[in-house]
Design goal:
alpha+beta, 5 strands, about 35% strand, 5-stranded mixed beta sheet, flat, S16 Ribosomal Protein, Chain: A, about 90 residues
Length: about 90
């Protein structure tokens, strides 16, 4: 099973709200997911980002791949740098 960290869109028309989720890559965008990692609200100024760092690190360590947008959100929250640093330290 290929596991991805990606966004699921919620909210209403013209007012998106996203959830950062871990899901099977074959499941639909807003369909079934394995775990909720956080939220992203682009409508606020500045955009609101909430991420459960511990769980995100766990999923990245066990091999989940992040979509491009999810990766940029993880970078903004600081999780991606910690993951990269841990990966380099393990080598």
């Amino acid at each position: 099973m290929a596991v991805r960290i990606r966004l699921a869109r919620h909210g209403r028309k013209k007012a998106p709200f996203y959830r950062l989720v871990v899901a099977d890559s074959r499941s639909p965008r807003d369909g079934r997911f394995i775990e909720l990692l956080g939220t992203y609200d682009p409508m606020k100024d500045p955009a609101s980002i909430n991420v459960d760092e511990e769980r995100a690190m766990h999923w990245l360590k066990v091999g989940a791949t992040a979509s491009d947008t999810a990766r940029s959100i993880l970078r903004k929250s600081g999780v991606w740098e910690k993951f990269e640093a841990g990966k380099k330290q393990a080598e």
